[in-house]
Specification:
Blueprint lengths: L1 E6 L5 E5 L4 H11 L6 E5 L5 H12 L3 E5 L4 E5 L7 E2 L1 H4 L9 H8 L1 E4 L13 H9 L3 E3 L5 E4 L7 E3 L5 H12 L4 E5 L5 H12 L3 E3 L5 E5 L8 E3 L4 H14 L2 E5 L8 H8 L2 E6 L2 E6 L7 E3 L11 H9 L4 E5 L8 H8 L4 E4 L2 E5 L8 E3 L3 H13 L3 E5 L2 H4 L5 H6 L4 E6 L4
Parallel strand pairs: 2-15, 3-14, 6-7, 10-11, 18-19, 22-23
Antiparallel strand pairs: 1-23, 1-24, 3-5, 4-5, 7-9, 8-9, 11-13, 12-13, 15-17, 16-17, 19-21, 20-21
This protein binds uridine-diphosphate-N-acetylglucosamine and phosphoenolpyruvate.
The site of uridine-diphosphate-N-acetylglucosamine (UD1) has 20 residues, from helix 1, helix 5 and helix 6.
């Protein structure tokens, strides 16, 4: 079992190299499976567990995949897909498995979803996805726990998303890209990762207009070709290292961090006292003043990213006053509060609102990661807690952050990753 052990008190200084974006590379692997000839090359791929699971899942349906981890490069040959089944033992380990459905529908005419994983954040429905496939002509059978979708060719149609779903947009764009005729997707997501996926699909030969406007028009084409594409940097990984610098009162140079990918989050961090110095391709982050309390409302991009809500909750624990966090994307994303309270924080939660009373003096103890971002938020808390903090279920952290311990150690943090015999 993977466990992280953090000893607090060190001020972080130095350079952090931001990884490739988890939430861009996973749909890109799904997109690579749409190419019936040649090999796709993805660069700047993060060495995270979700990518390793996605590699295993792609191989389970017949693709040939080589993940050259030290080169951060994935090579995918999807010329022969052999099975429409996304096996539960792999698909249930990560959310990105849902992104393989469009390729299965186009390449094999059917998809059998034995399960979808991902962070435990409440309902996490997929009805927008299924409704979209039906409107494109697929037959979706949701009768039992295994979802069967059949499609003898998809036909363009007017689609909509009730809310601008991140993977919902990516899946419906991929489904429409090879459908016959024109598809319009209303209320499409604007996240930078979604735009990067659309950029890759366009380079593959897809005909997509309106990226970043909320209205996407997709003219179906007959085939998509394999390309080489470099994955954008991970803005959530960058946000974690920004907050690490702010928490410890240090100064960190981010290679690969970009402020415009953060949207409102950049301004909220500045409101709390975080200072940014844009030095060309390097972004310097520091905190020159005491941490101020904040009022944060999570939203779709460019609103405050829900994936940074937990790391920000940790920062708010040190603020000189009361902070208010309103989580508007997921209906169960406050598991972190109970763990931080074990460390001496004073956080109260009522439905989708949390109130963080600061400043709190955090003390190291044994805590549990309930999901990827609560896990990384606990590592951040350990950086400023008195004594030692151990974080169990560290696999959840490794789902989304590559080489976390070495990258933190390079900044002077006392962070160790341990493999303990499963208890
Ligand atoms: C692999 C990946 O890219 N994961 C990201 C993706 O997740 P994911 O794509 O699952 O998140 P969505 O944007 O779809 O979901 C947001 C909300 O919409 C609801 N919903 C979504 C789809 C649907 O068909 N029906 C429905 O009701 C969900 O229950 C949730 O409450 O975007 C989230 C929001 O930025 C991020 O936290 C995740 O890191
Ligand atoms: C919710 C997240 O991931 P996933 O959708 O892969 O569970 C996340 O990255 O914070």
């Amino acid at each position: 079992m993977v466990r992280y052990r953090v000893r607090g008190g060190n001020v972080l200084r130095g350079t952090a190299f931001i990884q490739g974006a988890k939430n861009a590379v996973l749909p890109m692997i799904g997109a690579a499976l749409l190419a019936s000839e040649g090999r796709t090359v993805l660069r700047n791929v993060p060495a995270i567990e979700d990518v390793r699971r996605a590699t295993e899942l792609a191989e389970a349906i017949g693709a040939k995949v080589q993940f050259h981890e030290s080169e951060r490069t994935l090579v995918i040959d999807a010329s022969r897909l052999t099975s429409p089944v996304l096996p539960a033992e792999i698909a249930r380990r990560f959310r990105g498995s849902v992104l393989f459905v469009p390729a299965l529908l186009h390449r094999l005419g059917e998809a059998v979803i034995e399960g979808v994983g991902g962070c435990n954040l409440g309902s996490r429905n997929l009805d927008f996805h299924y409704n979209g496939y039906k409107r494109l002509g697929a037959i979706v059978n949701e009768d039992d726990s295994v979802i069967h979708i059949k499609a003898a060719g998809l036909t363009g149609a007017p689609l909509y998303l009730d809310t601008p779903s991140h993977t919902g947009t990516e899946n419906l764009v991929m489904a429409a890209a090879l459908a016959s005729g024109t598809t319009v997707i209303e209320n499409a997501a604007l996240e930078p990762e979604v735009l990067d996926v659309i950029h890759m699909l366009t380079r593959m030969g897809a005909r997509i207009r309106g990226a970043g406007t909320g209205f996407l028009t997709v003219e179906g084409v007959n085939e998509l070709t394999a390309v080489e594409h470099t994955v954008m940097p991970d803005r959530l990984d960058a946000g974690v290292f920004m907050i690490a610098a702010a928490l410890t009162g240090g100064s960190v140079n981010l290679v690969g961090g970009s402020l415009e990918h953060l949207g409102v989050a950049r301004w909220k961090l500045e409101q709390m006292g975080v200072a940014f110095e844009d030095e060309g391709a390097v972004l310097q982050v520091s905190r020159a003043e005491p941490i101020r309390p904040i009022n944060v409302i999570t939203d779709t991009y460019p609103g405050f990213a829900t994936d940074l809500q937990n790391p920000l909750m940790t920062l708010a624990c040190l603020a000189g006053g009361t902070s208010y966090i309103h989580e508007r994307i997921f209906d169960g994303r406050f598991a972190l509060a109970g763990e931080l309270n074990k460390m001496g924080a004073n956080i109260s939660v009522a439905e989708n609102r949390a109130v963080v009373h600061g400043p709190a003096k955090l003390r190291g103890t044994r805590v549990t990661a309930h999901d990827l971002r609560s896990g990384i938020a606990l590592v951040l808390a350990g950086l400023v807690a008195e004594g030692e903090t151990t974080i169990d279920t560290g696999y959840l952290i490794d789902r989304g952050h590559a080489d976390l311990a070495p990258r933190m150690q390079a900044l002077g943090a006392d962070v160790e990753r341990e493999i303990s015999p499963s208890e």
